[in-house]
User: Fold these one by one.
Assistant:
Number 1:
Amino acid sequence: MKKNIDPLLSIEHVKISCHNEGKWKTIVDDVSFQLFRGEMLAITGSSGCGKSLTAHAIVGLLEKGCRVTHGQIIYRNENIIDYDERRLQELRRDEIGLLIQHSLNGLNPIQTVKRQMVETLRHKKWDKNNIETSLHSLLNKVGFSNPEHILSLYPFELSGGMRQRVLLAMMLSLQPKIFIADEPTTALDVINREKVLALLKQLQQELKLTILLISHDEKSVKKYADRVVQMDRGGVVL
Ligand SMILES: Nc1ncnc2c1ncn2[C@@H]1O[C@H](COP(=O)(O)OP(=O)(O)O)[C@@H](O)[C@H]1O
Ligand SMILES: [Mg+2]
């Protein structure tokens, strides 16, 4: 059914190489998949097969030692690989949000949730007079019934699951068209894993978000994703 419409994002025969010990080594070798508007697509595959590299390539955030050597990443009929840094920044701010792996460590330990959320909102043209209301509504969306209290806390006062939900709220404040979540549940216990995945599903449906969910845990994402693609070491996607 989805095959009849144009994909929102198309990864076409992408190869990614990394420089290691004086040599270039191909890590992702010929990966292709398409992401359709409104769906939740899960990418699974064993650790080290290049899932995170692929996610980073999509938003132009590959580390210095790594680069896309072949293929195209098509978004809005343009090849993202051709973008300069300014356009990539725009893409990350306005179009594709990436929640990076290990992002739980990404919250600033010495700033309250409120301060950090306000900082994120600054990247967008939010109505400054209504910032408090916006923060409350964002935190409500990710399942907090007491936003005022959450805003006053420091990251260490939140559980892993709560921190992940705060990070999701920060992502949502950027109103991305595509949301990429790279292993959003690995640092969480089983109950919080389920909660975060269920929340992603709910946000997909309520906000009509398009989600690329990356996880090495095929079993748990299968339940929530509309489609699952398997990535192999060597990069083959079925
Ligand atoms: N900056 C880098 N320099 C050299 N090699 C890297 C770099 N980043 C990743 N790699 C290599 O790419 C492999 C795949 O990485 P990654 O995309 O993180 O895998 P996954 O997310 O599927 O677990 C790693 O095992 C590592 O060998
Ligand atoms: Mg990874």
Note: Residues 190-207 form the longest helix (18 residues).
Number 2:
Amino acid sequence: MSKVIVAYRNKEFLELVESLGHEILYSIFMGDNRNPKYYLSKGKMEEIREKADALKAERVIVDAILKSSQWYNLENSFNIPVDDKVRLIIDIFADRARSKEAMLQVEYARLQYEIPHLRELVHQLRSGEHPGWMGGGEYEIADYYQMIRRKMARIRRNIEKMRLQREERRKMRKKAGYILVGIAGYTNSGKSTLLKALSGKDVVIEERMFSTLSTRTSKIGKEKILITDTVGFVEDMPPWLIKAFEPTLEEIYNADIVLLCMDGSDSSEILERKMNLSLDILGSRVKGKIIPVINKLDMAENLQEKIEIVRRIGEPVLISAREGYGLEELVERIKKEMNIKRYCLEIEHLDGEIIQFIERFGRIKKIASREKIFVEFEMPADKLDALHHLLDLISTGNSEGLKEI
Ligand SMILES: Nc1nc2c(ncn2[C@@H]2O[C@H](COP(=O)(O)OP(=O)(O)OP(=O)(O)O)[C@@H](O)[C@H]2O)c(=O)[nH]1
Ligand SMILES: [Mg+2]
């Protein structure tokens, strides 16, 4: 990675830069003064140029979404590569991508990012400001541009294929009676830690942003619940970049329950900002219920204030995914939201079909046989009518032995 100079608006941006492994030689707060041609003000430009020379910086990173003309002007002025926030996020994604799907999505985003920059280069060449720049010049860039377009179309087809497979898989899981739970939230809020704590499986957890890009689905213990981890959110992600990861987010949009994981160790103000941002991204597309979860309780100060903020979207469940605190309550809450109830069935003869039905949609807790057979089980309440029907179909009056407990 590179030795960089960073112009930032938000301290969080420095973390983002460091999480990619860059060495920050110097950072400068941007303030509100802007020169539209460069985005940065003249004074800041001067300061950066001086520091870049003195410290031998290899790259300048700007906490903004630059117009391609601004990017071009900055590179020309500094004479070293300039990255904006979008470019940085794409680089981080590229670094973290492990699955084939994530790699394709990152590649797509990268190409999409390049297009306006290429247009800018062509524009500059045509206007004659840079005769002969890049050797072959204009035509070479035009060819390259066509190639990118073709490549993007190919990737899009591949991603669409994977999306359909994913949809099919989701349908099968639903048919098999699973409740689908998705974990959403800001990057580094502890989503993967939560998945691991609930499922006991190994997942990548790191003290850096965007450690997870692709989804991973696990079962919660013996419950009929499947839980999926997803890519984290961050401020200022342009809509097209979020769209590149849409197939992954579909796991969230189509889940029965979405756990909105929040970092309780953030200040109330930051927690609120991140919560609002997450809700903006999830928007109206979430079909299931959102359960707000405040994580990192072990490090949370002013908890009451944070609970009040989060109550706006629902009563939060308080957990520490790392310390394993509050996880049972969370599972209970999921069941409650799904209206999973506990029943007892008292029956003369337990038919295989009945067992199959209960196991498909619920979970048997206890079977005891005295004169009759007693089955205690949990099941979503909306399956009750169907079970009644099945019981009576097997033997009239059978369903009288079925009670909620
Ligand atoms: N103190 C404390 N730290 C936690 C807790 N849960 C997670 N962490 C830490 O928070 C950091 C991020 O955790 P991850 O689970 O990787 O976060 P994530 O939301 O999956 O992040 P991305 O995949 O980057 O979006 C790690 O260093 C975890 O150890 C917790 O309950 N308490
Ligand atoms: Mg993760």
Note: The mean pLDDT is 88.
Number 3:
Amino acid sequence: MAKNADKFRAGYVTLLGLPNTGKSTLLNQLLAHKISIVTHLPQTTRKNVTGILNGPDYQIVFIDTPGILKPRYNLQREMMKNVTGAIADADVLLYMVDINDKRQSPKDVQHQLAGAKEKPVILLMNKIDLVKNKKDLLPYMSTYAALYPFKTIIPISAEKNDGMDLIVKELIPAMPFSPPYYPTDYISDQQERFFVAEIIREKIFKLFKQEVPYSCHVEIEAFQERPGEKDYIRAAVITERTTQKSILIGKQGESLKKVGEYAREDIERFLDRPVYLELFVKVTQDWRKKDQQLRDMGYSQ
Ligand SMILES: Nc1nc2c(ncn2[C@@H]2O[C@H](COP(=O)(O)OP(=O)(O)OP(=O)(O)O)[C@@H](O)[C@H]2O)c(=O)[nH]1
Ligand SMILES: [Mg+2]
């Protein structure tokens, strides 16, 4: 046991906010590691992502959640259950807003934080790099401060790595005294295959338009470490319709090949070893609306 074991602090911090506010970008910056996928499209994150920040006398377990929305189909309903669960598990909440987003109505904050009860909530005003006149931030801050008893308000730019130190400084003393929850060299408790599937999904979000990325689920069917050879990974991209399947594959398989090339580069960077990646496309009609499918795909808790 370390000398000051009784002084160790450890706790859970949940990141929440509307889709596309920059929650996953923030998690990656805080950990200085890309573990949560980021795209320009909303609803990128579907399952909670755990990221662990280890310090000499603290461990902060961050939970990145799907953006808050009104569910229109079963998958979205499960996504929102992830959010509710992560709010309940948290010691402290980081509520993020994109200050340039007109969809964001400050009045929604009370509703969105209803499950937070008495828990401390820090408001993060993200994307300040896009604000020309920093004075414009002040009325925004007071509007929010009047609507919810935030512990503090921190203007940040997750993308530009601006304000990260302030967040950590604020969080450490807010963590309860506790031994660490995970070994202190862990960066996440999720398995490699989860991150591999997420990286493939990120490339699909980046390469395809409209409904196609939203219709895709990625399943890792095989993940074999082979001594003296590259790891073998076989992944199935599951989509909802044959028309989407043909778009994903593209002329002479060119589109899918691109997904594979981009994904492999990132997977190798993430795993720090070379891999052989094989991709397939399958159709499971309307999987986003089917509870049994969602359970099998690991979206239900
Ligand atoms: N200009 C600017 N863009 C940012 C900043 N932080 C994030 N972004 C961009 O905002 C978009 C959404 O970022 P994400 O991190 O995926 O957002 P999210 O909140 O996790 O989104 P969901 O998973 O859909 O809920 C991406 O294009 C990011 O590059 C920032 O500080 N400034
Ligand atoms: Mg996200």
Note: The first strand starts at residue 9 and ends at 17.
